[in-house]
Recover the amino acids of this structure.
C-alpha cells in the first residue's frame, strides 16, 4: 500500500550540486523543501581515513551499485546493447552530494562561443561547416546572461584562480588566489609562453587559502595530499555540496532531507506535476510526496530515465529527428594528449591536488581559425598535477614490454620522470547519439534502465589528433627526451576510464520543438517541473562541466522562486 505524505512547496530529486544549491536558495526564501536522495547521508568525518586507493579508487566505494541500477551501451543501432556491469569509462556517484563529492575540483567557465555555437559557427564559416548529421544548436542563453550565476557559484565554492586571458569577461575576480605553482607547472608556463600561447592556472575548488563564503561557511585550505578524484576531502578544502550548500539549507529549518529514497516516478495530471513516488530502500515502503513544484536534479542518466519512465516529454526519435527527451547525448574527447619522458629530470608526481595545474585555451572553442581543419570547437591543453597514486599509475614508454625484467626496470626508471600534457576536448552532438529506455534490461525495482547509443565520429578523431600534436609540441619545448603521442582515436570504449562528463538528454533552448527545457531549466510542456544539471547541455564544451552545472542551478533556483510567485512559463 502506498503511503501519501502532506504536500510540500518543492520536492527535489537527487541532492548533489544542483539539488543542494536549489535547496539552499529556496529555503533561504522561506519555501518548504523536501530533498530525496537514494544513497546514504555523508559528512566530512566519513573521510578522516579516506587515503585508501584500493577501496575508493579501484573498488569504487563512493559509486552507484551497478548490480542494482546500471545502463546499457551500444555503439550504434545495429548492435545489441549490453549492460555496464563494472566501472570503466565514467563513474556514477551515489549518496548525499553525488558526484560532487568525488570530483577533482577543476572549475572552468564555458566560453561565450559555446552558448551561441550554431549561430557563431554559421556567422564565421557558413552552414556547410556543420556536418549534416550534427545536431548543433544554441542554448537559448548567452554567456553574459549566465555570468552572474557563474560568479555566484564561484563565490559560494571559494574557487581559487586567475583570469583566463582568452575567456569571457568577468564581473569580479576569483574569491581566492590561484593554487601554488610546482616546478612542473612552471616548466609548462615557460614553454607555452615561448610558443606565444596564453597559460593560466587551473581554476580550483581545492582552496588555496582558508575561506569564508557569503553564506558564512568556513573551510580550510588544501593540503595537496592528492586524494581528490574518487575520494571525499577530509579537510573540507575541496568544495562539495556536503560542506557548502547543504548545511545552509539544513540551518533554515525548512529542508527535510530524506536519504535512502529511490524516486521511481514523477506523478502528474492534466499537464502538471503533482509530486513524486519513491521507495524507502531500507524498508521497501512505497511513498508519495505531493508538491507544488518538482525539481529533478539527479545525474544525467537518472534525469532522462525518470522522465521517460514517467512518460513526460516526447522521446527523441533518431530516424525522424523529432522529440526532445534523450536528444543530444554528448561525452568528452580526452584522448588527444601526449606523454613526455625526461632522462635528466626528476619530479614529485605523487603530490598534488585535483585541480592543480596550468592550462591554455588557444585551441579551445573558436579561439583559433577553423577554416582549414576538419572539425569544430576544440579543447584545452593542460599539465595537471593531480597526484599519481601507485596502484593506478605506472608510466612507461609505449614500446616497452608489459612484463618481465625490462618492464620492471622502466617502471622504476620513469615513475618520477614523466609528464603529460592532456586535452579536454569538446563533444558535439549527432543525431545518432541519444539516450532511451532499454527494452530488455531493468533495475532492481523492475524499471527499464537507460540505453546509451554513442561512438566517436570523424569530428572527434580529427579534434583528438589535432590536440595531440599541439601537446607534443609543448612537451618538446619543455625538453622531453622521448614523447608518446596519441596517433589515432579508435572506437569509443566504455570499459576504459575517460571522464565522468556525460551531458545532454534534457537539453535547453528557446524552441519547444528542439529542446526540453528553457533557460531556467523549466520543462516546456510541464511548467511546474524543472530538470537541472548537465542533462540540459545541448553539447559538451572543451572543459569540465561543474561550473556550468552550478551556474545553471542558481538560475533554476531563481526560476523556481519566480514560478512560485507568478506561475506559467518563464521568459
Amino acid at each position: 500500500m502506498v503511503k501519501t505524505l502532506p504536500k510540500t512547496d518543492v520536492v527535489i530529486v537527487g541532492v548533489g550540486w544542483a539539488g543542494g544549491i536549489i535547496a539552499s536558495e529556496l529555503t533561504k526564501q522561506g519555501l518548504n523543501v523536501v530533498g530525496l536522495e537514494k544513497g546514504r547521508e555523508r559528512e566530512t568525518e566519513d573521510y578522516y581515513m579516506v587515503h585508501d586507493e584500493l577501496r575508493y579508487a579501484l573498488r569504487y566505494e563512493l559509486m552507484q551499485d551497478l548490480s542494482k541500477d546500471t545502463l546499457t551501451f551500444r555503439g550504434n543501432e545495429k548492435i545489441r546493447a549490453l549492460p555496464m556491469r563494472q566501472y570503466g569509462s565514467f563513474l556514477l556517484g551515489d549518496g548525499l552530494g553525488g558526484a560532487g563529492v568525488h570530483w577533482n575540483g577543476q572549475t572552468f567557465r564555458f566560453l561565450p562561443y559555446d552558448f551561441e555555437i550554431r549561430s557563431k559557427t554559421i556567422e564565421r564559416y557558413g552552414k556547410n561547416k556543420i556536418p549534416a548529421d550534427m545536431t548543433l544548436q544554441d542554448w537559448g542563453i548567452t554567456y553574459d546572461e549566465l555570468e552572474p550565476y557563474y560568479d555566484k557559484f564561484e563565490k559560494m565554492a571559494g574557487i581559487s584562480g586567475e583570469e583566463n586571458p582568452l575567456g569571457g569577461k568577468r564581473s569580479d575576480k576569483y574569491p581566492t588566489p590561484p593554487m601554488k605553482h610546482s616546478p612542473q607547472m612552471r616548466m609548462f608556463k615557460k614553454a607555452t609562453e615561448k610558443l606565444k600561447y596564453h597559460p593560466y592556472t587551473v581554476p580550483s575548488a581545492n582552496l588555496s587559502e582558508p575561506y569564508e563564503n557569503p553564506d558564512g561557511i568556513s573551510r580550510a585550505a588544501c593540503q595537496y595530499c592528492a586524494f581528490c578524484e574518487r575520494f571525499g576531502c577530509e579537510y573540507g578544502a575541496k568544495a562539495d555540496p556536503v560542506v557548502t550548500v547543504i548545511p545552509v539549507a539544513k540551518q533554515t529549518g525548512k529542508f527535510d532531507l530524506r536519504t535512502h529514497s529511490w524516486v521511481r516516478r514523477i506523478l502528474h495530471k492534466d499537464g502538471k506535476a503533482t509530486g513524486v513516488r519513491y521507495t524507502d530502500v531500507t524498508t521497501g515502503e512505497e511513498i508519495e510526496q505531493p508538491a507544488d513544484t518538482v525539481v529533478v536534479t539527479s545525474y544525467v542518466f537518472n534525469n532522462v530515465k525518470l522522465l521517460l519512465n514517467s512518460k513526460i516529454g516526447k522521446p527523441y526519435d533518431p530516424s525522424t529527428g523529432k522529440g526532445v527527451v534523450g536528444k543530444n547525448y554528448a561525452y568528452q574527447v580526452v584522448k588527444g594528449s601526449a606523454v613526455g619522458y625526461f632522462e635528466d629530470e626528476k619530479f614529485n608526481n605523487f603530490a598534488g591536488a585535483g585541480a592543480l595545474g596550468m592550462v591554455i585555451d588557444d585551441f579551445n572553442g573558436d579561439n583559433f581559425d577553423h577554416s582549414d581543419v576538419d572539425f569544430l570547437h576544440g579543447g584545452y591543453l593542460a599539465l595537471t598535477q593531480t597526484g599519481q597514486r601507485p596502484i593506478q599509475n605506472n608510466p612507461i614508454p609505449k614500446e616497452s614490454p608489459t612484463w618481465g625484467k625490462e618492464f620492471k626496470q622502466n617502471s622504476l626508471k620513469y615513475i618520477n620522470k614523466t609528464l603529460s600534457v592532456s586535452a579536454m576536448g569538446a563533444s558535439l552532438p549527432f543525431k545518432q547519439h541519444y539516450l532511451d529506455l532499454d527494452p530488455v534490461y531493468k533495475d532492481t525495482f523492475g524499471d527499464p534502465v537507460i540505453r546509451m547509443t554513442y561512438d566517436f565520429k570523424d569530428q572527434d578523431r580529427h579534434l583528438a589528433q589535432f590536440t595531440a600534436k599541439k601537446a607534443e609540441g609543448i612537451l618538446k619545448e619543455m625538453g622531453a627526451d622521448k614523447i608518446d603521442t596519441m596517433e589515432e582515436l579508435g572506437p569509443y570504449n566504455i570499459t576504459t576510464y575517460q571522464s565522468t562528463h556525460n551531458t545532454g538528454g534534457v537539453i535547453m533552448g528557446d524552441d519547444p520543438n528542439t529542446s526540453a527545457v528553457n533557460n531556467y531549466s523549466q520543462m516546456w510542456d510541464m511548467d511546474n517541473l524543472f530538470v537541472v544539471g548537465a542533462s540540459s547541455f545541448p553539447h559538451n564544451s572543451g572543459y569540465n562541466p561543474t561550473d556550468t552545472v552550478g551556474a545553471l542551478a542558481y538560475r533554476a533556483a531563481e526560476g523556481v522562486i519566480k514560478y512560485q510567485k507568478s506561475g506559467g512559463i518563464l521568459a
Q: What stands out?
A: The chain is about 20% helix and 20% strand. The chain has one domain: 3-564. The mean pLDDT is 97. The longest helix spans residues 458-478.
